[in-house]
Amino acid sequence: MNALHDGDADSYSGSGGLHDDLVRLRHALHREPETGLDLPRTRAKVLAALDGLPLEISTGKRLGSVTAVLRGGRPGPAVLLRGDMDALPVREESGVPYASEVPGVMHACGHDVHTAALVGAARLLAARRDELAGDVVFMFQPGEEGYGGARLMVEEGVLDAAGTRVVAAYGLHVFSTILPLGVVATRPGPLLAASDAVTVTVTGRGGHGSSPHAAADPVQAVCEMVTALQTMVTRTVDVFDPAVLTVGSLHTGTAHNVIPETARFEATVRSFSATTQRAVRQGVHRTVQGVAAAHGVRAQVDYQDLYPPTVNDADEAAFALRTARDLFGAGRAVEAPQPIAGSEDFSFVLQEVPGAFLGLGACPPDRDPATAPMNHSPQAVYDDAVLTDAAVLLARLAADRLELAAAVPTPSPTEKSR
Ligand SMILES: [Zn+2]
Hints:
By secondary structure, this protein is of the alpha/beta class. The protein is 33% helix and 23% strand. It has two domains: 8-190 and 309-407, 3-Layer(aba) Sandwich (Aminopeptidase); 194-307, Alpha-Beta Plaits (2-Layer Sandwich), CATH 3.30.70. The longest helix has 22 residues, at 274-295. Residues 1-15 have low confidence and may be disordered. Bound molecules: zinc ion. Zinc ion (ZN) is lined by residues 109, 111, 144, 173. Residues 109, 111, 144, 173 line the site of zinc ion (ZN). It comes from Streptomyces lienomycini.
């Protein structure tokens, strides 16, 4: 049993051994990570772990998702709990004894913890099924890391899996840095950023490096574009509704004395509101085309809105923090002072139904959260100690939210302004 946890899981489940089971499952998932929308070995482990529980289970059509519905013993609405299951193309250097056995693939974002915790929540809630005032939908999602798996699951009907639209949805994410071990953090409104991907291809006219006047130099043009885009952000975006634009890749040319024909760069854009997202999108087109025109070259801009901002419902965020505070004490449940510029495809769920996304500190106790390797780093480590707490927190969010709905009838998502 971990030091963080006060025995609540056992009293909640009425059965011991949960933590050890979750650690075993998490390590098995970690050893055999998979990326993308189809995670056959991960899905098999999840299905095996859910086997024997009183769940209605279905799997995805266009992706390797698992949706499980638990019917409560009392009538009531449905709520959704989500865990993402996919890993990253990262070569693991964490040094943990259960490190990845798949070359070049690692659970570097801790989604193995989320998956195991959601299995734990299913076990805890199944043990208290008769008391539940409604149904719980467990959303085991592949393809979070850039594949939009949540959007696909929403399209395939996960929000209505219980036969009625869920009234609330919750998910959590572990952090190997920033938050101290075991601390839960969330906030009302934007929690995570929108993420867009930009690819710019500039076509000029190649030639000899000694005679640029006889060519149309795309190198000079992209250099100006990269700096002009930073200036565009500072002149276009409200400082209190910010955006980040980072050019992370730039490729052109073959030799010191050849003016190339083309140049290409890629950027990520992060923002926290539809207004700023739109302003930056327009600004990128305007700036790139303006600079291209000034240089007499052609530019093609491919601007893709990947993920919307993850926006918590204010009431649901307050409820989630209250629940975490009740479980773990005030010192371990804090309101995040500001959003962070990472992004999440749970945003597609929160676009449809009210809910809250929570951060959970999983930095090992022998590391400093201020300097520990961050999520996605090959050295990132997520401490097993949070597994049971994460499971209990998810289970309590579902059970208490259904209880709340039984006491106060919930307005339908369409009535409720979000
Ligand atoms: Zn992640």
